[in-house]
Each structure stands twice: as structure tokens, then as C-alpha cells.
Design goal:
The chain has six helices and ten strands; from the N terminus they run βββαβββαααβαβαββ. It is an alpha/beta fold and 214 residues long. The protein folds into two domains: 165 residues, P-loop containing nucleotide triphosphate hydrolases (Rossmann fold); 47 residues, no CATH class. α2 packs across α3 and α4 packs parallel to α5.
Length: 214
């Protein structure tokens, strides 16, 4: 599902953010990317989401070279970053609708899908709440649920757990497991805490100074 060969990325001449990265992630696998801040985990996720260009190497998603991947037609990929992305002045309902409009769903189907989603995940109380009025925890919950409105092949989750209490982190992990891991969505989760990811990850890849270490 994901294959990376001899990947290098540097921001300045002397500093490699990623250095000779080689890794494979199988379809449906949940893998934890472990390491301290600045170790390269976030940069790698951004490369996979096509938000960063790399200097050398090869990256394949579903055996397609990432430089040729069209995320609207070839692969459905979700990326949950350190800052949840919303239309801040729009309601939760409008934010959910926007995802489907971008995918060219017709208006009737959009209404049905969004209404069913609000009911299924007990989000009715948020229907008319503006995204700007949500707490950070609520934004992450809705971000994950919003991703279920389209079929996903891959989900990338950045180092979000440091922002929450242990109980909140475990609730988010349970949601990730239910929505993605249990449904065999290929999942990469970045964190510096292996203990918190033990419940969902089948294995871990450790990063240090831009490299993968044993």
C-alpha cells in the first residue's frame, strides 16, 4: 500500500529533515511513527499527503508513484494535522456538506448522508454550531467522523495526543480504531508515546534526526 525507497528531504544545505528513509506499510496495517519532536515523523506524513516535495527517492501509494497520484481519483487519503482544518465561520453541518460537494455528490444525497452521519455519531447537538466555537477536542472528533463521509484507503494522523489528557487521548484512539483500524484502512499515527498507541498499532517505526533507527 505504501512503499518508500531511499527518500531524502532537506530544508537547508546542511540539514536533512528526512535521510535515506526506506519503509513499507501493508494494506490495512496500523503503524506508529515514534520519535521526538523534529525527528522527521511529521515531515514524512506531509510528504505522503503531497504537502512537501522531496529531493531524492521514490514513494508509491497503491503501487502508483506519488508524483502521479490524483487524490480525487486514484487514492482516497485523509490527513489529520496538528491543527484541525475547518471552515471556521461555517457550522458543523455546513462543514460536513462541503466535503461531499467537493466530491460532486448531488444535493439530495448530500442531505441524506450528512443527516445520517449526525444521527449515527450523536452529533445533532453540533449541527448549527460554528466550527470556531468548538473545543479543540471536539474539532478532532468531528475531523475523524468527517473523513468517514468518503471511502478511505489511507489515513495519516499527526502528533495530536500531546494536547489532551490521558482519558481524552484514549477516547480519540478508540474512535480511530472504530472508524479506521477495524475497517482495514491503512493507518499511520505519529506520536512520541508508544504506550498510548499499543492498543491500535501492530508495529512501530522509530525516527531520530530524520532517519529510521532500530
Amino acid at each position: 500500500m505504501i512503499e518508500i525507497k531511499n527518500l531524502y528531504l532537506k530544508y537547508i544545505r546542511e540539514y536533512y529533515a528526512l535521510y535515506d528513509i526506506n519503509m513499507k506499510v501493508n494494506k490495512g496495517e496500523c503503524v506508529g511513527l515514534i520519535g521526538a519532536e523534529g525527528s522527521g515523523r511529521t515531515t514524512l506524513l506531509r510528504v505522503l499527503a503531497k504537502l512537501e516535495k522531496f529531493d531524492k527517492g521514490e514513494v508509491y501509494l497503491k503501487e502508483i508513484n506519488i508524483k502521479k497520484v490524483d487524490f480525487k481519483n486514484d487514492i482516497n487519503l485523509g490527513y489529520v494535522s496538528l491543527t484541525p482544518v475547518f471552515l471556521e465561520n461555517k457550522t458543523v453541518y455546513e462543514n460536513l456538506k462541503y466535503v461531499l460537494k467537493e466530491r460532486k455528490y448531488n444535493e439530495k444525497d448530500i442531505e441524506n448522508i450528512v443527516n445520517n452521519c449526525l444521527i449515527e455519531y450523536n452529533l445533532e447537538k453540533y449541527r448549527n454550531v460554528k466550527a470556531s466555537d468548538l473545543s479543540l477536542y471536539e474539532k478532532y472528533v468531528i475531523s475523524f467522523i468527517r473523513l468517514t463521509l468518503r471511502p478511505l484507503d489511507i489515513i495519516l494522523i499527526d502528533d495530536i495526543f500531546e494536547k489532551f489528557t490521558e482519558d481524552e487521548s484514549r477516547e480519540l484512539l478508540n474512535l480511530i480504531k472504530k472508524l479506521f483500524v477495524d475497517k482495514n484502512v491503512t493507518t499511520l499515527v505519529a506520536s512520541n508515546n508508544t504506550e498510548i498507541l499499543n492498543g491500535i498499532c501492530s508495529r512501530f517505526i522509530k525516527f531520530d534526526n530524520g532517519s529510521i533507527v532500530n
